[in-house]
Design brief:
The structure is a homodimer. In chain A, helix 3 packs across helix 5. By secondary structure, chain A is an alpha/beta fold. In chain A, the strands form three sheets. Chain A has a seven-stranded mixed sheet with strand order 5-4-1-6-10-7-11, sandwiched between helices. A two-stranded antiparallel sheet of chain A has the order 2-3. In chain A, a hairpin with a 2-residue loop joins strand 8 and strand 9. Helices cover about 30% and strands about 25% of the residues of chain A. At the A-B interface, strand 8, strand 10 and helix 6 of A face strand 8, strand 10 and helix 6 of B.
Amino acid sequence: MQKIMTAMIPARLGSKRIPKKNIRYMGEKPLIQYPIDLAKSSKRFSDIWVTTESEELGKIIEKMGASFHKRSSELATDTATNREFTYDFLKAHKCDYVIMINPTSPLLRQETMNHFLDYVQEHNFDTVLSVIIEKEEIFFKGQPLNFSYDKKVNSQMLEPIETICWALTAWKRETFLKLQQENINPVFGGTIGRFSIPKDESCDLDTLEDWNIAEGILNSRMNKFEERYIEL
Amino acid sequence: MQKIMTAMIPARLGSKRIPKKNIRYMGEKPLIQYPIDLAKSSKRFSDIWVTTESEELGKIIEKMGASFHKRSSELATDTATNREFTYDFLKAHKCDYVIMINPTSPLLRQETMNHFLDYVQEHNFDTVLSVIIEKEEIFFKGQPLNFSYDKKVNSQMLEPIETICWALTAWKRETFLKLQQENINPVFGGTIGRFSIPKDESCDLDTLEDWNIAEGILNSRMNKFEERYIEL
């Protein structure tokens, strides 16, 4: 049976380190428009909601074709967590799964999102996290985690690590509500699926430097640089 | 006492997945020129050597102001390791430390390289590795490594992992030669220092996609994009 999926895009107007980042243009579109366009183009969602404390931002996203879920201002502080605002959202909206699409992932490709949604449809996890798989030599607490000092091996031979990137997260509504009511953390609730997304589709947007990197990557996708070599 | 440091820049002409990448222009300079320029500008090296199997590349790097260490062709295959070609290099060149500068790190900043060299000078490690520090939720072998399902915490609270990035590596010559002769892996030999470099200065250049990302980041540093917002 087809699962009913609702998109939830958390957005604040009052971002600290990159002021008003959600309405700032990255390349040809404002940041907040990327997840809205991805969600619309996927044609898999019953509804597409942006949750924000800002009435002004609410009007903008409605023009972009998403619905406006007004977040109470105590859920829009720097310390408000996924857990709190997702619970607030899920109490108000019926669905089988909520898919949180992070607006700080403008590099996410349509194809990747669609595969993620297929994965949620085809399995029956309570939580699906998006992860980046990396095969590099890692130290943890000062000690080698996945390699040995005895031998340098090709990185393809290393045991990978998976980093949660929060670009896309799926939660089964029923489980999330139940666990929260039982005072159990629902963010990593129930059975957990991990879905791998390509490294170049994930980014942080915490600092201005992060912003410039993401904009540079986006730019490099759109404008291939000229291919030039030293003449031998 | 000032330690004598020699720069070793490993370069092949016969790269597979990005053909001739070392002589390909990234932005305004060919890739191989980035580490040469960094090494020259640091003014800390007794010598700056590029090790390559290619006579043609050898001539080019000499014009750029580096010296040419001819690598035997059996040390220029895809399977030749750091261990082999560094040993070959160190047998031929006297110094206290060899600093391997990876040409696949065009994003490395001068300041970072200089701090790395200070670190090598001020300590007495046998090996110094460059690492990227990351504070993200990590899975290892399918299990949470540095977080707990019980609680979602701010990423700043997470135990970091350190990923070896191979942008810069220092080896004490004496130790390296001794361990290799004893058939002990010298790549992670003796006492090991870890030097953290900023995340946006490290990159892979294995695939064309990696290349485009790096070129995009470089481009974003040189050309600030216009700062535009949606009008409220």
